[in-house]
User: Which sequence fits this backbone?
């Protein structure tokens, strides 16, 4: 899981055996692409990010999902200006996340209900490029969040508005993708849920119905539900960092973004009583924090509504937030 699983610590579930694609629900549709036609890698034409939702790093390359610019961009460092970044794809509508196992790169094409699969190639100039090779159509209702879990050797793709999780895998050393299973949380079938978090053999869903749901990772049977106050009902993501659960919030229960914030709590049971700490002041505040990822020894937060502050970098040492820096 590009960052988040590393942040949560070692999982208690065992690695899966190499998948043999004999029993599956759906095989990917192949995309025809002429690699030789891409002799020049297109640069990002935008001077700024427009609602960035996700940042991650795979091998030596950084990726940013630039949601409202309908693109994913990539580059080898975070110090160069955005116009020096390259376009991985702009063939998506309001994508939110990217996940990779190093062989394939999966992107949620949210408004098209599609999962796009891309792979590394080389063009005629010997440059490394990313090309679309496969796709899955009709994946739920607004697929919104993808992670790769190395312990189960599975890509988990969450359909944000019908409570369904789509599981994708491929055989070892073979990039052809297969949809192997669809799981669901019936109580979330008509609820807008922006993300999930895997911690050990549990999976947590932050939902717009004023609760956090904890379920068994393998059966999706709900184990516990943690109610939250109405002012933090529109949650975005839950991330475990050291001794705390960090939660980013977009809106209250009415959809008002004035309640957007970032908080942390040691025990999820304390949320209902308001016994949590607001930590958004470390990041100026006033915007809408979105997803948090871990890259190497630092944490990264995407954010919108504040000009000039789209991506933050910070560290946590002994549960203290330090080194907060605006990256883009």
Assistant:
């Amino acid at each position: 899981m590009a960052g988040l699983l590393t942040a949560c610590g070692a999982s208690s579930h065992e690695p899966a055996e190499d998948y043999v694609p004999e029993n599956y629900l759906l095989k990917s549709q192949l995309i025809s692409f002429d690699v030789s036609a891409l002799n020049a890698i297109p640069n990002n034409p935008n001077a700024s990010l427009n609602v960035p939702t996700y940042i991650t790093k795979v091998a030596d390359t950084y990726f940013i999902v630039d949601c409202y610019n309908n693109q994913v961009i990539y580059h080898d460092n975070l110090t160069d200006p955005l116009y020096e970044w390259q376009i991985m794809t702009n063939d998506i509508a309001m994508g939110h996340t990217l996940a990779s196992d190093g062989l394939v790169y999966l992107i949620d094409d949210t408004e098209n209900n599609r999962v796009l699969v891309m792979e590394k190639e080389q063009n005629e100039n010997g440059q490394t490029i990313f090309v679309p090779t496969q796709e899955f159509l009709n994946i739920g209702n607004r697929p919104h969040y993808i992670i790769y879990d190395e312990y189960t050797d599975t890509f988990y793709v969450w359909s944000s508005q019908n409570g369904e999780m789509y599981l994708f895998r491929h055989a070892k050393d073979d990039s052809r993708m297969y949809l192997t299973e669809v799981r669901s949380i019936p109580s979330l079938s008509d609820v807008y849920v922006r993300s999930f978090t895997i911690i050990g053999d549990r999976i947590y869903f932050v939902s717009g119905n004023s609760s956090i749901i904890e379920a068994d990772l393998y059966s999706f049977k709900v184990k516990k539900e943690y109610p939250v106050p109405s002012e933090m009902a529109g949650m975005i993501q839950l991330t475990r960092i050291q001794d705390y659960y960090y939660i980013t919030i977009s809106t209250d229960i009415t959809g008002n973004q004035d309640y957007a914030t970032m908080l942390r709590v040691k025990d999820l049971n304390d949320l209902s009583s308001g016994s949590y700490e607001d930590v958004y002041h470390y990041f100026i505040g006033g915007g809408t924090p979105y997803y948090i990822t871990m890259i190497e020894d630092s944490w990264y937060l995407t954010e919108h509504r504040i000009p000039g502050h789209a991506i933050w970098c910070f560290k946590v040492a002994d549960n203290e937030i330090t080194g907060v820096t605006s990256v883009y």
